[in-house]
Amino acid sequence: MANSVGLTGYDYYVPENVVTGAEIAEESGIPKEVVVEKMGLAEKRVCPPDEDHATDMCIEAANGALADAAVEPAEVDLVLYHGSEFKDHIVWSAAANIADRLGATDAYATESYTLCAGAPVALRQVRAQLVAGDIETALLVSASREEDLVDYTNENASFMFNFGSGASAAVLEHDPDRSRTRALVHGSDAVTDGSFSEDVVMPAGGSVAPPSHETVEADDHTLDVPDPDGMKERLGEVSLDNYLTVAEGALEQSGYEPDDIDFVAVTHMKRSFHDLLLDRLGLDPESDGYYLDEYGHVQSVDQIIALEEGRKRGRVESGDVVLFLAAGTGYTWAATALAWLG
């Protein structure tokens, strides 16, 4: 395992509050069967208004991941937050807050944003640092409660009705002992199509439209899709191919063939596209992945949840090739391959 990077521990946290697909259907006016079957949302977890902020959820997941890895906070060299930009405060370092609260006194803290494609990209970034010898132990944390930014009466934003809340954490180490290693982190790939950069926006709150009485009264502080039909049409032309491109690229960088994939932990999406994507990867959607219809889409937390749910069901076993596969508005598609050791 010389010069290898190992995933030595991970965990996730979701709040207790549950919103069902039926409740979303009632609030939005969309038929229940569309929300539950087409959107693939039986239920999801949401945060109470004054609890479970992004850092609170990250602390819960991080404590679990560190315990799983048998790593003390003081041994961590890097805390990387790769979750939602919607966090406890704006223009603020969640990573620094998390490091301090964990007691990671020797770590430096930084943040990386690739929105919903964040998990594979964060693994790629930190693996490179570990291989270069810049650090020895890293803690990756992510959280999202962007459900707060969804207006269920805005039909244009309906593809975001699946947004749920939660957090994940993972410990990566340089040349860890095999007995403590869950998986080896291998190659990655990513591609961005910036023509989608303004297709999903929160109209107010930034420098273009600073917060004001007018923006609040106009309800401009929720997520919106200015041209949903145009976005859907253009995305439909490229999304599947880009998913397949980054999957193949990550496998090639890892010395694998497409036929080597055993399990895919992928972003939550509508059920039909999920099944099509796994089928095009030569996989069985029922046994070679985990569909997140009981969680919804928890931004870059999805991959860790899917991995653990798959592992608990016996779908991830020692010797398997696991692919973290994701896409995020912007639009970026990304993948990272792991060799599962168990």
Entry summary:
This protein is α/β, with parallel strands linked by helices and 342 residues long.
Task: Provide a descriptive summary of the structure in words.
Helices cover 31% and strands 21% of the residues. It is of the alpha/beta class. It has a 9-stranded mixed beta sheet with strand order 5-4-6-7-1-8-11-10-9, sandwiched between helices. Keywords: Acyltransferase, Isoprene biosynthesis, Transferase. One of its GO terms (molecular function) is acyltransferase activity. InterPro entries: ACP_syn_III_C, ACP_syn_III_N, Thiolase-like.
Write the layout of secondary structure elements.
Blueprint: E1 5-13, E2 18-20, H1 21-28, H2 32-38, E3 43-45, H3 54-69, E4 78-81, H4 94-102, E5 108-111, H5 118-132, E6 137-144, E7 166-174, E8 183-192, H6 213-217, H7 228-253, E9 261-266, H8 271-280, H9 302-312, E10 321-328, E11 332-340
Parallel strand pairs: 4-5, 4-6, 9-10
Antiparallel strand pairs: 1-7, 1-8, 2-3, 6-7, 8-11, 10-11
Helix pairs in contact: 1-2, 3-4
Protein name: 3-oxoacyl-ACP synthase
Domain Beta-ketoacyl-[acyl-carrier-protein] synthase III C-terminal: 251-340
Keywords: Acyltransferase, Isoprene biosynthesis, Transferase
